[in-house]
From TrEMBL:
PROSITE patterns: ABC_TM1F (PS50929), ABC_TRANSPORTER_1 (PS00211), ABC_TRANSPORTER_2 (PS50893). It is found in: Cell membrane. GO terms for molecular function: ABC-type oligopeptide transporter activity; ATP binding; ATP hydrolysis activity. SUPFAM superfamilies: ABC transporter transmembrane region (SSF90123), P-loop containing nucleoside triphosphate hydrolases (SSF52540). It comes from Paenisporosarcina antarctica. This is ATP-binding cassette domain-containing protein. GO terms for cellular component: plasma membrane. InterPro entries: AAA+_ATPase, ABC1_TM_dom, ABC1_TM_sf, ABC_transporter-like_ATP-bd, ABC_transporter-like_CS, P-loop_NTPase, Type_1_exporter. The chain crosses the membrane at residues 29-51, 71-91, 144-166, 172-190, 255-278.
Amino acid sequence: MDQQPKLTNKDQSIILKRLISYLKPHKKVIAFALFLLGLTVIGDVVGPILIKTFIDDYLIVGNFPTGPLVGLASAYIFIQISNIFISYFQLLKFQEIALKIIQQMRIDVFTKVQNLGLRYFDKTPAGSIVSRVTNDTEAIKDMFVSVLVGFVQSAFLVVGVYIAMFILNAKLALVTLFLLPILFLIIRTYRRYSSVFYQDLRERLSQLNAKLAESLQGMSMIQAFRQEPRLKDEFNDINEQHWKAGKRNIKMDSLLLRPAIDLVYALALIMLLSYFGITSFSNTIEVGVIYAFVTYIDRFFEPINQVMQRLSIFQQAIVAASRVFKLLDEEELVPTQANTNAKIVAGKIEFNNVTFSYDGQTDVLKNISFTANPGETVALVGHTGSGKSSIINLLMRFYEFEQGDILIDGQSVKDFKSQELRETMGLVLQDPFLFFGNIESNIRLHNQAMTDEEVRAAAEFVQADVFINQLPDGYKQKVTERGSTFSSGQRQLVAFARTMATDPKILVLDEATANIDTETEVAIQRSLEKMRQGRTTIAIAHRLSTIQDAELILVLHQGEVVERGNHQQLLASKGLYHKMYLLQNGIVEETI
């Protein structure tokens, strides 16, 4: 589930470059923040030099030159106070940049998800997608907010410290350069192993989200079939794997982060004091220089320690970014449409030898051909898995097909802009989806050009106004997630109203009356008849009684049209349709 190959050093470098590319729109602000950062580093470097000057030049018994000492003290206090304010503003600017970058990245990811084809969602758990949009982008935000700023600040400080040490004592500064290969080796070792561990950790977290999303979406079925213990065990198993992955990371951090750096720091102090001790046999050692070097060594290792502590966040961010970029690079997009000005006028639909497969191996539709003339109703019937919904999926351009063609008014469905298709084709599903909001917003679908009168007219047309007017808040009645507080029939009526509000030329009904009770069905059948008048209608139906007046009924079996004709013709043929009709009406014959 959601497994990714191991990230090599080259992969990590590419990901880091791509992350840094998000900084380009903020060049001016970054330059200003770096200037402020440079000022703070200068203050950190100059401070020890002032104290060194005081110790070596003025810390003498019986000597108190007021002017120079006041000047040194004033300069030191001014630097420290200035650093406080400058640090505040430079950190504020870096944080603002980081938050703006993540804001843009989340918009990019969400936009990408909206443009992905249904094939992608068929093979990817919803929880995994949620994890990438939320958890993974949050991990990247942490990198920009703390890691990148910390890395830059540490780099500036290390350079400044080395410049100061070379000014004070070039030989000793050269000796301390030997520390850099040791630190580099520690960092490289950490990155090598942590990328594997953190990748495993992110994948476990993604699995947790996927299992949680599945449980929440199927809660009614879980409780109905008493599957709580099984789901709990499965969740516990994934959670245990996540805990083990986290424990491996903690062990590695405990070894290679601060303890290893502290050991190198101790070695550096030993080298430093040993150098001064050996030098003292032949030359006078200035105490101020010792103080300055000890202070610089400390200030050198403190940012290194911070960098190492943030490396764990950095590695998590790199792994998270790889998952986000994989989503952004996903090529399973919605079917492309030609940029033409073709318009749907009459609504004539033609399927010409259409063959289709979801996985590229097994054909679910085989040489489907039929014609639906303007104003006619073509009904699709057949057992589960016969290909009825696949025909609608292709007509609505949810999936791309390679063999055959689908024509609307004599032009390929691929030649119409997506907007033209969506504005002229109305779809009502068996299980309608209602958005969070209210009844009115679910009918209008935030189309501000649609007036309140048009919303109410659409509801009256399908007789949804009967139950809407009985609600406490009427059209302003609150709709919770997926419309769970309404009955199936009420949700379906709202879906009918939503479809009719756009006045489509082509009507697509996917078992639209399957979840409506008999009394409600009788009431809306008359509305359906009005809805179909003047519109080309493609209707999937399990209840054969709802499509007896269709001009053409196609009987599908294993992806092929095995029978076609109107209701009377199919009954007279004594074929599969005839058997389905007898079974639905409770009539048993020996021939069945």
